[in-house]
């Protein structure tokens, strides 16, 4: 079960359209020049999900980044470690390059 979603605002991408503050004023504020700031830590409860997702989807410069679902921590949960899979070695015959070009 999800405890809401997490977002991040990349202020370097913001062009000051203000659509985010229109859709989700509780999560985005505009500075004196019209550029957005994120209110809070980016955690959005389920009840506000629709408004924040509308702001995310309507942002013309994609400055709002979806970070995934926030899941409550549970000490009994099984955590899997990420294992890195090595890249396969390319196979070449004599002087034949990977692309098939032969000298």
UniProtKB/TrEMBL annotation:
Listed name of the protein: Ferredoxin
Entry-linked Pfam families: Fer4_15 (PF13459)
Top-level taxon: Bacteria
Keyword Electron transport: yes
Gene Ontology MF terms: 3 iron, 4 sulfur cluster binding; metal ion binding
Keyword vocabulary terms for this entry: 3Fe-4S, Electron transport, Iron, Iron-sulfur, Metal-binding, Transport
Renumbered residue ranges of the record's region Disordered: 72-103
Metal-binding is among the record's keywords: yes
SUPFAM superfamilies hit by this protein: 4Fe-4S ferredoxins
Compositional bias annotation for Basic and acidic residues: 72-94
Cofactor: [3Fe-4S] cluster
